Amino acid sequence: MRQPFFAANWKMNKSIAESGAFISSLVDKLGESASGIGSQFAVVVAPPYTHLGLLADSVGDSRVQISAQNCGVAKSGAFTGEISPSVLKELGCDWAIIGHSERRHVFKEDEILLVARSKAALTESLGVIFCVGETLQDRRAGNTMKVVEGQLRSLGQLSGNSLSRMVLAYEPVWAIGTGENATPAQAEEVHAFMREWVGKAFSKDAAEAVRILYGGSVKPDNAEVIMAQPDVDGLLVGGASLEPVTFAGVVLGGLKGKKLR
Ligand code: PGA
Predict the structure, then answer these.
(1) Average pLDDT score, the chain
(2) Residue 74 confidence (pLDDT) above 90
(3) Which of 127, 130, 142, 222 is most exposed, with minimal Cβ within 10 Å?
(4) How many angstroms separate the CA atoms of 110 and 72, rounded?
(5) How many structural domains is the chain composed of?
(6) Per-residue b/e over 134-157, b at no fewer than 16 CB within 10 Å?
(7) What is the span of the domain harbouring residue 144?
(8) pLDDT at residue 225 greater than cutoff 80
């Protein structure tokens, strides 16, 4: 079975002071209810760059790993405003989110840039959470799979070994921050399509192993039904990840969906 993976994407929220007690509180909330499940699931928190050092220090030997929300395209060089993947590693980061819909749509990051960011992160031994997803217009026009396939295509140039250090995330743009999540069936349909794509582009084993997260208005009360879908391996959570109690509720709900609780 693929190890369930839950990621908190704080986006540009929380002051450094506000983030101080988050990890200990989260670990506390997960602690007892998730005891016995051991290392069977992963929990990742992605704060803004400026908070990474503090959060990485507070993780200690808990199960929580830290992710950046983006990643520079090279180890060093003339890239004003960017952060090097080796510095992210130095800060204690394990992951980088690449291609989030806000990076694609608000900051116009394209496939060439996103694959360069992914390669740079992987070279420095960061795992990559690579996001794809269609807009409402795409969905209404019946273009969901075409758009998702187009966003995945550039990953085809990576090696199978690189893919094994990546997690994919399906986040329909219309579901992000809107309160309107994809139905479990809508999520499953796209996840199954993405897994099939990995099978064709890499191998059957890679398709079986790759974890695919769903993101878009995930909350404690919809985590279980979404995670109950066979091709949904985890959740990428924005708004509901800002409070430890709510995020723990998502994680525990998700584990229930996989019958781990
Ligand atoms: P949301 O955001 O949970 O607030 O919809 C998800 C995301 O953007 O990753």
Answers:
(1) 95
(2) yes
(3) 142
(4) 14
(5) 1
(6) bbeebbeeeebbebbeebbebbee
(7) 5-257
(8) yes
The CATH number linked to 211 is: 3.20.20.70
Q: How far is the CA of 78 from the centre of ligand 1 (A)?
A: 32
- For the entire predicted model, the pTM comes to 0.97
d(CA 116, CA 120): 6
126 band by pLDDT with thresholds 50, 70 and 90 = very high
Question: Atom 3 of ligand 1 has which residue's CA nearest to it?
Answer: 238
In angstroms, what is the span from residue 69 Cα to ligand 1's centroid?
Answer: 12
Distance CA 59, CA 149 (A): 36
Closest atom, ligand 1, to C-alpha of 177:
5
Which residue, by CA, sits nearest to atom 2 of ligand 1?
A: 238
> Percent of the chain scored above 90 by pLDDT?
93
Please tell me the distance from the alpha carbon of residue 114 to that of residue 98, in angstroms, as a whole number: 6
Alpha carbon distance 30, 216 (integer Å): 22
Residues within a 6 A CB radius of ligand 1 = 9, 171, 176-177, 215-218, 236-240
What type of residue sits at position 93?
C
Continuous segment of H or E residues that includes residue 66: strand 64-68
Contact 223, 255 (CB under 8 A): no
Q: Which atom of ligand 1 is nearest to the CA of 181?
A: 5
Q: What is the pLDDT of residues 84-106, one digit of tens each?
A: 999 999 999 999 999 999 999 99
Which residue puts its alpha carbon closest to atom 7 of ligand 1? 238
Band of the pLDDT at 61, cuts 50, 70, 90? confident
CB 128 within 8 A of CB 95: yes
| Confidence (pLDDT) at 100 | 98
What percent of the chain clears pLDDT 70, i.e. is strictly above it?
Answer: 97
